[in-house]
Each structure stands twice: as structure tokens, then as C-alpha cells.
Amino acid sequence: MPKNRIPDVVVRRLAQYLRLLEDQGFLMGHYISSQELAELAGVTPAQVRKDLAMFGEFGKQGVGYPVRDLKSELRAILKADRPTNVAILGIGELGTALARYLTREQPEKASRPFSLVALFDVDPAKVGQHVQGVRIDHLDDFSRRVSEKGIQIAVLAVPASVAQSVLDGAVKSGVRLFLNFAPVKLKAPDGVKVNSSDLSLELQQLAFYL
Amino acid sequence: MPKNRIPDVVVRRLAQYLRLLEDQGFLMGHYISSQELAELAGVTPAQVRKDLAMFGEFGKQGVGYPVRDLKSELRAILKADRPTNVAILGIGELGTALARYLTREQPEKASRPFSLVALFDVDPAKVGQHVQGVRIDHLDDFSRRVSEKGIQIAVLAVPASVAQSVLDGAVKSGVRLFLNFAPVKLKAPDGVKVNSSDLSLELQQLAFYL
DNA sequence: TAGATTGTTAATCGATTAACAATC
DNA sequence: TAGATTGTTAATCGATTAACAATC
Q1: Is some CB atom of chain A closer than 8 A to the CB atom of B106?
Q2: What is the pTM of this model?
Q3: Contacts of B37 (CB under 8 A, 6+ apart)
Q4: Contacts of residue B178 in chain A, CB cutoff 8 Å?
């Protein structure tokens, strides 16, 4: 499965489909058509079929996709069938909110694929405290904890001014996947993926439509 | 200026360019070339020129774009030259973090285009309390406050289960621009714009690359 | 079988990049 | 003027949509 060939936007839609199936599972019969799934997701049926066909032939002509199987295929593709270990770097207001969010109760039968395994900050007043039962370590210990705790994804909730250097350090420690909340464009070497969520950019974009 | 003709992705890059100019302002001379701006933004020079050309001829051949003028043009385009009134709906952990974020100190000369003017929740224990000096009102008062406070953008930080109905109510109250943090796909009528920021979708997308 | 829906190919659409004449 | 860089047109690229034969 050459991931380089799969557009990001397809992966995003697959995650969307999976969530829709998990949310609405109890309302559905054994099969769901591309038409029905498309309606839920707000896309075209052709797009649903194309997205799914990139990973295999999951459907049955004349009937649709078997819901149970489709869910487990999607979970496997997205690695949602196993726990993924997440660390948060920067335990300010936002980092704390994200920690709570990640450990919150999940609704009904949804899989809970993310485990919060470590928290980091540089403030001596914070180091040693606990959030949601997870200890805050000093950022200097990050490298050691990557192997100890098996950190797979690092969430950056640090100030913009230090985001790039924190990222660089984390990359050196062997982490390849990042979700960045600092309002800066980060540069990373090949093989490292950085998704960004930028509140002020989102708001600024909305303001254009005023 | 027919906004329908401007792709979303262009607006997003313009906001990015503006931020880069504001962040790096003190390092720059009077002019910046599309080449230089492109490097900062991580895009091609042709894209920078094309994006800017959609709104006018801001550059001077052989020289580049005058930084001061370009900044103020971008601010005008993005409405960052005037305050925009934002309300947050749902003052849980995330809503509180967002409130703090929106009222935080801004670095140096950056414009501060967003004013947090109102907060809403349905929990009687929260109504009447203050966050960052702003009172939490009951969501029932939303409609009244829209006109009183001139709410232009509503940030949805409510639970996923009620996000759609809260959105519907806010639309009835006359708000047209939304930033949604609930992990659900929201439906809105034409003329209403909803941007979404979905943490679990971002993480799920990263997990694909494990 | 008849009806329905998939998987896939071909057509369309839109955005990005390249190229270059205009011009500062 | 000579050199550089814009604004814009044309070429490329990639993703979305339409269409339909295969087939359950």
C-alpha cells in the first residue's frame, strides 16, 4: 500500500466515513450504499466509491457495502483498530484542554484509538503535577520518554516562538507525526508529517466573508 | 469583489502571507519579492503573484511589492483593519481555553482584529460567571445579544450531540459565520459559512501514516 | 431474471505551475 | 539602459464527477 499515492483529502474523508458509521451504526441495516454514505458525509456517491476503491473491493454490486466489514476495513486502514500513543507538549490552557479532551468519555461503541501517554512542559511549577492522571514531565526528558512510552504522535501546544525548535528536538528524538496548534508555519524534513490547526487563521479566513 | 469567485484556499494563503509579513516585518526592507514571500510561506512565487493579482496590482515590476502597502491591502481584504466581534458558545474546558486564547497578549505590532464580546452556556452554575472579564450568558439570551453586542462570528465549543441544534438557533438569530470545534459534520443553509476544526479527525488522519 | 449498485474508465473541472511579454 | 520582477496567459497537473459495463 504505497501511502504516497493516497491524497491527504481521501484519508480525511475515510476518517469521516468511519465516524459517521460509528455514530449512526445503530440506525443502519446490514448494508449501506455509496448513495446513503455520501448523503451522510455531504459528498457525491462517486467520490465515496472512488475513495473506498483505492483500498480494495469492499462492496457487493446491487446491494452496497456490508456495514460491519466496512467499519473494520476502515479501522484497519486508519489504524483505529489499535491504540495510538499521544503526547502533548506545552501544558498551558490549551494543552490542558486538549489533555482533557483526549481522555474524555467516548460515546457508546466508538473505538477509542488514542491513548494520552505523556505530557511535557518546561515550567518547574508544572513539572510533577498531574492532568487526567498523567504526570507532567520536563521537556528535557522527552527523548527518553519516546522509547519508554512508545510515543507515536506529538501534539504541539507550545508558544509560537518556540514551536519550531520544539519540533526539531522532537524529530531528533524519533517522532514523525505531529499536530501543531501554534500559529506558525513549521518546516520539517521529509518523512515527517505535521498537521496544523490554527485558530486565528480560521477566524481570519471567516472574516473575509464579512 | 465577487467573493464567490475567490477559492477558500486563496483566502487562507492571504491570511498566511499577512501573518508572515507582520511577524517578520522588522527584518524586511521596503520591498519584498514574490520569491521571498513564497519562501517564507512555503509556496511557489507564481502562486504568490497569482493570489495577490486576484485583488489588484500591488507590485512594481523589477522591484517587488512595497511591504507597508501590501500589508495594509491584505488587512483591508481580510477585514483585519477593523475589530471583528466573536462569541463563544459552550464554556467548558475547550471554550475557556479558546476564550483565553482570544484575549491573550499579542506580540509586538500585530493587529488585534478579534474582540471577544460574549460567552454562552446552558449550565446555571456557569451563567453569571466571568472568563477574561466577559460574562457568561445563558444560551437563551443569544439572539438578543447578537444585536446588542454585534456578534459577527460564533465559535461552537458545545458537545457534538447538540452542535447542530445550537448552530440552527444561531443562524435564526442572524449569525452567518461559524467556527465549529464539535466533531460532527454540520449542515447549514446557503449564505452561512461554517469552518470546522476537528481534533480527532486530525489525529485519525495522522494515524494513517503510522 | 430484473433491478440495483458497485468498480472503473473517461470527461470535466479547477487549481497550480511555467513561461514570457510588459515595464519599473 | 540593463537587470529584475511583476501580471497574465498557456500548459500541466490532480482531483472530482459522470457514465456505464460488470455483476450481485
Answers
A1: no
A2: 0.91
A3: B17, B20, B21, B45, B48, B65
A4: 206
Strand partners, B179: B155, B195
Identity at B127, one-letter amino acid code: V
Cα gap A177→A155, rounded to integer Å: 9
Q: What is the mean pLDDT of residues A27-39?
A: 90
Which tens digit of pLDDT belongs to each residue from B57-102? Answer: 999 999 999 999 999 999 999 999 999 999 999 999 999 999 998 9
What angle, 0 to 180 degrees and rounded to 10, lies between the N-to-C axes of helices B142-149 and B160-172?
50
Residues 38-67 of A with CB under 7 A from strand C: 45-46, 49-50, 52-53, 57-65
Per-residue confidence (pLDDT) for residue A109, from 0 to 100:
46
Q: Measured between alpha carbons, how far is residue A159 from residues A202, B17, B28, B137, B181 in Å?
A: 18, 20, 23, 30, 21
> Helix, strand, or coil here: B118?
strand
What residue of A is the nearest CA neighbor of B7? Answer: A205
Contact A97 B101 (CB under 8 A): no
- Alpha carbons B63 and B50: distance in angstroms, whole number: 17
User: Residue A92 and residue A156: Cα distance in Å, rounded?
Assistant: 11
Q: Write out chain B residues lying below 8 Å of A176, CB-based.
A: 209
pLDDT of residue B111: 60
- Take residue A58 and report the three cell numbers written for it: 469492499
Compute the distance between CA of residue B69 and CA of residue B57 in angstroms, rounded to an integer.
11
Show residues of chain B in contact with A86, CB under 8 Å: 203
Per-residue pLDDT reduced to its tens digit, A65-80: 999 999 999 999 999 9
State, as a whole number of angstroms, the distance between the CA of A153 and the C1' of D17: 35
**Beta carbons of B37 and B46 less than 8 angstroms apart:** no
- From residue A112, give the alpha-carbon distance in Å to each of A103, A105, A181, B207: 9, 9, 22, 13
* Phi and psi, residue B202, nearest 5°: -60, -45
Q: How many residues does chain B have?
A: 210
